[in-house]
Design a protein that fits this description.
The protein is 36% helix and 29% strand. By secondary structure, it is an alpha+beta fold. The chain has a single domain, classed as Nuclear Transport Factor 2, Chain: A. It has a five-stranded mixed sheet, with helices on both faces.
């Protein structure tokens, strides 16, 4: 009888231990849903197309950082606002389109298109009057339903070429030896 009792007690203790171990595991969140991603990207698109920042406080997390292949890389939210405002000054007819959106856990990947006519000063350069049409990708990292970090990639070479600027590589005589 005592052998059965000890076996029962060991099995009972093992079950309690297993229940405790698995019961204390953190519950992993699955990330954001497609509906949540669509709500976020609709708000982002509105900001880019209208320069209206009225929904921005609910959209961007404190400490938001924007990575972009321009001199304002690793920019703060205030730098982002200045970029959008300056873009509308350079391209009053600017239009962004989000063509396709992918959601993966806490990330939203957006394939985008920008079009606009350069009728205002651009980065200190005079307006060209030319239209630009470029494609790019946004990657938004979401924390608690808000954008905490953003990586943006656009074909800047194509952008500048469409506006009439040329890439001039350094001549061999100007290169450091």
């Amino acid at each position: 009888m005592t052998i059965i009792y000890y076996r029962f007690a060991r099995i009972f203790l093992l079950l309690i231990f297993v229940s405790f171990v698995f019961g204390c595991q953190p519950v992993l969140e699955k990330g954001i849903t497609e509906d949540e991603a669509n709500t976020i990207t609709d708000k982002v698109l509105k900001i880019w197309n209208t320069a209206d920042f009225s929904t921005a406080s609910d959209l961007y997390a404190p400490g938001y950082v924007r990575h972009h292949p321009t001199p304002s890389a690793n920019a703060s939210f205030d730098d982002f606002k200045n970029t959008v405002t300056a873009l509308h000054g350079s391209f009053p007819d600017c239009s962004f389109t989000f063509n396709d959106t992918l959601v993966n856990d806490d990330k939203i990947i957006v394939f985008a298109t920008f079009t606009g006519t350069n009728t205002g000063s651009l980065e200190g350069l005079p307006p060209t009057g030319k239209k630009a049409h470029v494609s790019g990708v946004y990657v938004f990292f979401i924390i608690d339903g808000r954008i905490a970090e953003e990586w943006t990639y656009f074909n800047l070479l194509s952008y500048y070429e469409q506006l009439g600027f040329a890439l001039t590589p350094p001549s061999p005589s100007n290169q450091a030896e």
